[in-house]
Amino acid sequence: MTKYLGLDLGGTNIKISVLESINGSVTLLEKDTVSTEAVNGPTYVVNRLAQIAYDYIFNKYVDIETVGVAVPGVFDHDLGEIILFPNLPGVWLGQPMQKPIEAKCERPVSIINDARAFSLAEAHAGLARGKSPVACLVLGTGVGGGIIIEGKVHLGSTLGAGEIGHQIVQPDGEFCGCGAQGCIETLTSAEALSKRAGTQTPEEAYKRAIDGDPKAIAAFEESAKWIGIGIANVMVVLAPELFIIGGGVSQSGEFFLELIRKEAEKRAKLIPNGTINIAAASLGVYAGSIGAALNGAINAGAQFNLISIT
Fold it and tell me: What architecture (CATH level 2) is domain 130-281?
């Protein structure tokens, strides 16, 4: 019996998952959410992650073998330091993360981008189980992405592959938090969709669209256009067996997914009709922390026969 801890760092909350492996069969033992308290700055947030890991290991589950941390941005894989967190307050550049957590919890710590963690979880325990390649998009404050090939996160030569939301589709468009101009993220984020719909949140926009509000419907159609273009681009290059759409904006359900499907089919002229498969994520808000736990376990050499997340 072995356990793996996963922490998913968000701007508002930290999601926590504990996975238990018995003879290669993995189940979700526990999940929880605590506030990030990000306004207190980078060092405070890292220490908070370290303390959470310490509490789980030394006060709850002494047989936790590894700790995985999903982060909302770019990090140095060799140093375990942060390079860019565009949506968290404070100066994160050069902030150590891996070593302080390891020192506190006395366990190996693996860091992974949160969208890649989401993708890993969906590929191992969600609708994409057994499929390859798989492409995932996480629609929210930003637009994250991930590519899974044969059960492994594809990071490419730069260790940063999978950023589907940072394809440049409007070269003269507005600047993105990543520094580039005209990324899909700038056109399809929660803020962009809400602004076009004239609402405060995507949830409000969805309610208005379902009620027939033309402005809200047009806002979703515009977002679907750019996401569809991005999916068509990935399809002609990689031809994933399945696209998984997750994140807060995706909670608009089949209404939004169907708009995206139509756009993707319309744009991908080299692909036979009906071969672009797009589905909603199945693991909910804890997918990132589940994926973080899996990443830590896999990096430590763990092998799984069956993963059941219910």
Answer: 2-Layer Sandwich (3.30)
